[in-house]
Amino acid sequence: MIPDDDEFQGMRSDWRIGLSGDADLRSRAVDLQLQAEKHRYTYLRDWCGVPIIRLPDDIITLQEIVFVEQPAAIIEVGIARGGGLVLDASLMQLVGLVPRVLGIDIAIYPHTHTAIRNSPFSSWIEMWQGDSTSEKAAEVVAKFIGTSPSDSKIVLILDSNHTEAHVLSELESLSPLLPVGSLILVADTLIEEFPAGYFENRPWDVGNNPLTALNKFLERHPEAYKRESAWSRRALISEFRDGVIRRIA
Length: 249
Known about the structure:
Layout: H1 5-20, H2 23-36, E1 45-47, E2 50-52, H3 56-69, E3 73-77, H4 83-94, E4 101-105, H5 110-117, E5 125-129, H6 135-146, E6 154-158, H7 164-174, E7 183-186, H8 210-220, E8 225-227, H9 229-232, E9 244-247
């Protein structure tokens, strides 16, 4: 017999719990991603014609987050080639929200400006160039959030410099600006699961990465933030494993 909706939702909940706790399957997924990255798998896709550096599982999960959480705005730290900002704006429009997207990066290149300007979502996207850990960045974010309703949620995505010190500084400076209920998605927590020394010529590695920063941040602020396992382990092949937290106070 075909299950009714309540039964089906219950079954899916059980399946998700099983998936999230399957350490062997996750290990195999990481191994698969390591093999796929030999072909630069993360870099191979576009979103609405703009290159996006994100895994397909994470794109689907973000769609679910935007639909369920109904954020008033999305802030993305780390713009790269612009596809993430276009994704954010398009998903907000798709679910019936008025898109409001802010992108921050230490360097925004001409090709990124061109890609955003030529996108059909350009009127809903703002960009600011500068250090995401600076006082000025906090001022820009505070001003941007301040134009949203006071009871709204914001989604903040951190995907720039992946050292523990930098990510921890971003969390300490930007997260207090978010309204209660907002979500923070910390990218590339998977660095902790990759082999030591994998990221050659990069300052981050096992023991020094976004996940270690996030763990320290949660230890410092247990009363104000919690890890959202329902979103953190929604995807199998994911850059955000255990990297989604919510402001609760």
